[in-house]
Structures are given as structure tokens and as C-alpha cells.
Amino acid sequence: MDFDMLGLSPKIVSNLTSLGITEPTPIQKQAIPHAMNGRDVMGLAQTGTGKTAAFGLPLIHALSSIGAKPKPKSVHGLILAPTRELANQIAENLRSYTGGSHLSVAIVVGGVSINRQINRLERGVDLLVATPGRLMDLLDRRAVSLSEARFLVLDEADQMLDLGFIHALRKIAPLLAKERQTMLFSATMPKQMNEIASAYLTDPIRIEVARPGQTADNIEQSVHYIAQTEKQTLLIDLLKKHPGERALVFGRTKHGSEKLMKNLDRAGLSTASIHGNKSQGQRDRAIAAFKAGDIKVLVATDVAARGIDIPEVMYVYNYDLPNVAENYIHRIGRTARAGASGQAIAFCAPDEMSYLKDIEKVVKQKIDVASGRPWEVPAGMKPAGSQRRGGGGGGGGKPQHGGGRKPMGAKPAVSGAPKRRRRRAA
Q1: Which of 123, 166, 188, 338 is the most exposed place for a label (fewest CB within 10 A)?
Q2: Is residue 64 domain-shared with residue 98, that is, in the same domain?
Q3: Which domain holds residue 285?
């Protein structure tokens, strides 16, 4: 099946062809026709399978037919993403899809000048990509109106739930046009997701191209059982075995990730890091250098797990196992993008055995052992650095919604949504 068979306009199909995109992925084949018909969509698919185009292309098609330009400060379509990196990636993709058209794409995230964003919104925007916190800041300043927004997309909605963004969503959704189309996409499907769908989607079509927790078949997964003090030596040895390949290394804390980056650099490895102690400019430059191949190793906290779309990433190292099992899926989804193959290598120290067991339950498989033997953990032992669900930004970080503000004090709209705490940025 080609994109023109899905009913997309010839201009959109031509843009995709110029980008080398000719065959839709399974999630695109199933979601686009329903979205084109105006249905609300609830899509579940692995990372790296083309969810952005699955919602972005129908939006562009629909907005192209409107004809009228958005009024000052108004928005025709809104896409909410949980992290700055993911928002940047979505906006970049949408701009490539809209090339040569009259449609405008803007992005509002924290960590950059809000005044510049206010000035951009003055002219009105067809498609606005936003992190919830910064959008709430702009709404409070009356710098943007959502009353004409007829399209709403919640991307990586499961992470929004984990990070407490349900509070912001509860304030944002009523501000959009009552007659609207809403789409929700995610790689995992926590129990509360159905409640979100019931609250914000109308008679949605559920599209599932992978069972919850399923990882891509072309990712080779393995685990090394190793003492925490020996991890760095092993990592350096493994990285030096493939010096020309790009590798993404995940740590759990900001301080630990920065220290690891410096040690890898001293070992002669071309390395950079991204985490919440870095400015947005520093994070953007590190990702750009990694994408260009100027650096080969990027050390990150979970702030990057859903914002890096670089097909050339061949290796993902879980230097520290995530304390939220679902984050493992998003981490290793940074490799084997767009049908490529890749390797996901985990390091497991004794106090991380419970994390590994949770991960294997979520992915519904035993991860192959590369070295060592499973640790025997005394009954009742808690893993070091244990945190509540949703802290996965590295050491108990504040959600990366980019607004730097407390959510408005309303009770959660979804039962079981985690309580929001004031924490430092991840």
C-alpha cells in the first residue's frame, strides 16, 4: 500500500516521496484512514514505528483544506508531548511534511525565551506542538487562545500520566473547540489509559499493532550481571569494540550521568551528555552533534528516552536499569528505528534485580544473559535509589514539561494518577 492509496493529498504524498518515505508503516496504514474520516483514534505501537506521521499526516491534510489562516494568537491544531526533546522531534517532522504549503508549525517548550514564543504566537499558528507546562504559562499570560483548535493529539500519553500532566490536561482540554477530533498515541498502555480515553476521546477506534510491552523484533537484548563498581570498565570495553557506531547510554541520575560522561571522555571516547542540569541549548547541541556523528556516545537520563529519533543508533546501554519498567521499552526503542536492527545491552547490579524482574514481566520475555549469573536477592530487600513510578528523569527529577511551574491545583481527573510533588528538574 502506498500513501496515495490512503487518501492523502498529492502534495503531501509528493513531500513524503522527496523525503524518501514511500511505504506506510503498520500503525500508519491502520490509523490514517480512520483519522481522515474524522474518527477519534487511540493508537498503540512500539517506538520507532512512525506514530508521528500516523497523526501528523491526517492533521496536515485536514488543515490544508480549511483555507483560512489562523487568527492572531489562535491555533488550529494542538499536539501535546511530555518532554522538550520529543516536542522538538515532532515539530521537525511536521515541518518536513508541510514543506511548500501555507501551513505553519510552531513549538513552545520551557528552557528557552518565552517572549520569543509569545511573539511567534501573535501571528497565529496552524499546528502548535507544546509541552503542557509551558503551554499553561502562555495561557496564563493570555498569549494564546485554543478556542479555534479543532484537533488535539496526546503523544506518548502514558508518560504524561506518569509525570502528572493529567492535571494540566484537565485544564487545557476544555479550552479547545467543543467539536474537535482527538487522537491519543502511546507505546505502552497502563490501566489508567482507558480512563483518559473515556474522558477525552469520543467513540475512539482502538488501533493496536503491538501488544502492550512488546519490543521490536529486530532489537537484540542482553544483560550482564555485574557489580556496580565494575560497570564502567565493562562499558568502556564494549564501547571500544565498536568505535565507529553511535551508542546511547542511559543512567539514572543527573550527577551520575555527568560523571560517567566525563570518565568516558577521559577514556578517549567521543562523548556528550543530556540531563536536567543542562540548559536547553546545551541539550539541543549535544543531540545535534550526536545526530551528525560528531560524537559517538551520548549519556542521558530518561529525559531522552522519547525524544531521539536517529536511525544510526546501533547500541543502547542501560548502564543503570530504570526504576519504572515501561521506561526500558522507551529506552531501547531508540535503536532499531524505521526497520533497522540494533542491540540493547543492560547492566544489572545486585540491588537492581527487582528492576530487571519487573522489566521482564513487562516485556513478557527473559532477557538473554551475556555474562555473569542472576543475583540472589534476600527477601524484602529494596533496590537502592528506589523511587515512585514516574520519576524516570534521573534521580527524582521534575517532569520535563518545560514550564518550570507548579500545576494548577485541581484534583486528578483520572483515578490512580500519581500525585505531583515539587522536585528538581531531571
Answers
A1: 338
A2: yes
A3: 219-371
What is the rounded CA–CA span in Å between residue 349 and residue 225?
A: 6
Q: Determine the Cα–Cα distance for residues 197 and 265; give it in Å rounded to an integer.
A: 45
Q: Is residue 199 predicted with pLDDT exceeding 60? A: yes
Residue pLDDT, tens place only, 346-399: 999 999 999 999 999 988 899 999 999 999 865 665 555 444 343 333 333 333
Residue 289: pLDDT above 80?
yes
Query: How many whole angstroms separate alpha carbon 323 and alpha carbon 326?
Result: 9
236 and 90 assigned to the same domain: no
- Point out the domain boundary residue: 371, 394, 415: 371
17 with 165, same domain?
yes
Nearest to 314 by CA among 347, 346, 340: 340
- pTM, full prediction: 0.69
- Asked if 190 contacts 117 with a C-beta cutoff of 8 angstroms, the reply is no
* 18 and 104 fall within a common domain: yes
Over range 84-108, report the average pLDDT.
Answer: 93
d(CA 91, CA 128): 8
pLDDT band of residue 403 (cuts 50, 70, 90) is: very low
The pLDDT tens digits of the residues spanning 311-328 come to 789 999 999 999 988 889
Cell of 34: 480512520
Give the DSSP H or E segment for 326: helix 325-332
Least confident segment among 140-149, 265-274, 416-425: 416-425
CA distance 120 to 143: 10
Give burial (CB, 10 Å; 0-12/13-18/19+) of 319: buried
List the Cα angle 182/187/189 in 5-degree steps.
80
Total domain count, the chain? 2
CA-based torsion, 342, 315, 388, 356: positive or negative: positive
- Using CA of residue 394, residue 399, residue 404, residue 408, what is the dihedral sign? negative
d(CA 425, CA 185): 25
Give the cell for residue 274: 543530556
pLDDT at position 212 is: 52
Measured in Å, how far apart are the chain's first and last C-alpha atoms? 42
- Evaluate if residue 239 carries a pLDDT over 70: yes
Distance CA 78, CA 38 (A): 16
Chain Cα centroid distance, residue 290:
17
